[in-house]
Amino acid sequence: MTTRFEENAIESPRLISEMLLSHILGGQRIDLYANANRQSTEEERKALRALVKRALEHEPVQYIVEKAWFNGLEFAVNTSTLIPRTCTETIVEQCIQFCKSDASTSPKRIADVGTGSGCIAISIAANTTDSIFATDISPNALSLAEENAQTHGVQDNITFLLGDGLGPLVELEPFDYICSNPPYIPDHEMKELAPNVKDWEPKLALSGGQTGLDIIEQLLADAPQCLRAGGVLLIEIATSIKENVLNLTHENSSLKNPTILRDRFGEDRFLRVTKS
Predict the structure, then answer these.
(1) How far apart are CA 172 and CA 168, in angstroms?
(2) In 89-236, at which residue ranges do the beta strands (DSSP E only) sit?
(3) By C-alpha distance, which of 203, 168, 205, 198 is closest to 183?
(4) Which architecture, in CATH terms, is 80-275?
(5) Which of 25-29, 125-129, 218-222, 235-239 has the lowest mean pLDDT?
(6) Residue 104: pLDDT above 80?
(7) pTM for this structure?
(8) How does residue 106 score in pLDDT terms, banded at 50, 70 and 90?
C-alpha cells in the first residue's frame, strides 16, 4: 500500500496505509505491530482494496475511516465539515489559557463560530467548566458536532445554534471569548490546493472569496457587539492575508491590541484582538 501511494503522490503514504489497515482489522495503529502475524481474511482484503482505491483517488483518509484526531480526542468527520487540523489546536490552547488567567468573570462565556465537527468547542469543554456556544450555517455540520459532543460527554456544556456567523449570538449576553476558524482561502489560492482538499472538503468551509476576507471582515465588524469590554476574539487566518486582516482591525475603533500568533509549525496563522 505504501509503495502504491508513493507512486501516486499521495501525502503521508505510510500513515494512510496504517489508518486504512487498522480501520479494517479493528483496534489502533499500534495493534498492527503488536499483532504482526495476524492472518487477514479474504473479506478483509477485499474491503481493504476498496478503501485503497478511494485513497488513490485522493479522497482524504479521514473521510474514508470517518474519524480524525484533534487535541488528543477522536472526532467523527464527514464531507459536511473540514477535517480537523493540528495547527488549529492553538485556538484551544489560547482559549484555555485565557480562561485560567482572567479572573474577572467566572464561569466564562465562550463562542465557537463555524464549529464544523465541533472539535474546538468540544476540546475546550473537555478542559474547562465554562459555558460554550457553538454555531454553524450547515445543519449537517451542526448535527455531527452534537454527535461528537455526546461521544465525549460534554453535550451539557455546549449550546449548539444554527445560523450564519455571529448572527445567532447578537441577542445573547456578551461573551468573554469568541473563536473561529472561518473560510479564509482567497479564490486564486483555492485553485492551488491539493486534490485531497480542493476536490473533497466543503468549499463552504474553505473559500473566503476573492480576497479571502469575506467572512473575516464580517466577524471583525460584528464581534464588538457580542463581546464584553476586554473580551477577546481569536480568528484563524491565511498567512498570505495577515496584513489585510490587520488593516481591517486598525479601522475598527472598537477593537484594540491586534496580534498575529503563530501555530505550532511556526506559521502566522491567527489574529487575536481585544474589545476596547
Answers:
(1) 8
(2) 109-113, 131-136, 158-162, 175-180, 227-236
(3) 205
(4) 3-Layer(aba) Sandwich (3.40)
(5) 25-29
(6) no
(7) 0.93
(8) confident
